[in-house]
């Protein structure tokens, strides 16, 4: 049993607060104790004695009854997708639903790449939708490879973004310094410059 002490000068405020607690939190109030502790109806602001009310918390199982908990149900949708994929994989693995070896995940990634290529080879009205689906499967498999390697995928991708940006900005500065323009260079020329920058960083 929990004991809450309300220091409220006006009994009307106390009763209103208790009524709201009953309606919204499903608590059971001990009527006899409340009646014994209540000050007279004519209490004024000067009557500031503490009113002690015993409240018996009720078990609230409404949410559980409406939406039974599942292994994956508690993972927030608001998480970044790679991080959520990592969490999904971890929970599935906790009951044994996982690849046995890292090599098995790599094989799955190759399989997903093949499926992307198959969709690209046959253009239909649903090509874009299927490509999105296959790319999602590929990214999910990659997130799970990262998990198997003990690497948090969101962090790894953020670092890769930072590294690429740093190298690209250096290339952006180096090409004009050599009297060239990036838009006028061939892909091979850009790749050569990229490899030079990469070797230095």
Summarize the entry for a quick read.
This protein has 201 residues and is mainly alpha-helical. It has helices spanning 11-25, 31-37, 62-66, 81-93, 102-121, 127-148, 153-177, 187-200, and strands spanning 2-6, 28-29, 51-56. It has a domain at 2-64.
Fold and architecture overview:
It contains eight helices and three strands, in the order E-H-E-H-E-H-H-H-H-H-H. The model is unreliable at 1-65 (pLDDT under 50). The chain has 201 residues and is mostly helical. It is extended, with a radius of gyration of 32 Å. Helix 4 (81-93) packs across helix 6, helix 5 (102-121) runs antiparallel to helix 6 (127-148) and helix 7 (153-177) packs across helix 8. The protein has helices at residues 11-25, 31-37, 62-66, 81-93, 102-121, 127-148, 153-177, 187-200, and strands spanning 2-6, 28-29, 51-56. Strands 1-3-2 form a three-stranded antiparallel sheet. It has a domain at 2-64. The longest helix is centred in the C-terminal third of the chain and has 25 residues, at 153-177.
Task: Give the secondary structure arrangement, pairings included.
Elements: E1 2-6, H1 11-25, E2 28-29, H2 31-37, E3 51-56, H3 62-66, H4 81-93, H5 102-121, H6 127-148, H7 153-177, H8 187-200
Antiparallel strand pairs: 1-3, 2-3
Helix pairs in contact: 4-6, 5-6, 7-8
Label this structure with key terms:
201 residues; mainly alpha; 8 helices; extended; disordered N terminus
């Amino acid at each position: 049993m929990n004991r809450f002490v309300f220091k409220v000068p006006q009994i009307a405020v106390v009763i209103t607060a208790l009524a709201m607690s009953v309606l919204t939190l499903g608590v059971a109030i001990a009527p006899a104790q409340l009646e014994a502790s209540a000050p007279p109806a004519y209490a004024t602001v000067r009557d500031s004695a503490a009113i002690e009310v015993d409240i018996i918390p009720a078990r609230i199982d409404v949410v559980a009854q409406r939406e039974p908990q599942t292994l994956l149900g508690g993972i927030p949708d608001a998480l970044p997708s790679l991080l959520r994929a990592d969490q999904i994989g971890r929970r599935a693995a906790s009951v044994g639903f996982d690849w046995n070896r890292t090599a098995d995940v790599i094989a799955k990634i190759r399989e997903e790449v093949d499926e992307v290529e198959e969709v690209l080879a046959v253009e239909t009205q649903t090509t874009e939708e299927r490509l999105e689906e296959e790319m999602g499967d590929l990214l999910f498999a990659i997130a799970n490879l990262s998990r198997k390697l003990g690497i948090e995928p969101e962090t790894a991708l953020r670092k890769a973004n930072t590294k690429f940006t740093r190298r690209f900005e250096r290339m952006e500065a180096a090409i004009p310094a050599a009297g060239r323009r990036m838009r006028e260079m061939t892909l091979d020329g850009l790749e050569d410059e990229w490899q030079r920058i990469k070797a230095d960083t």
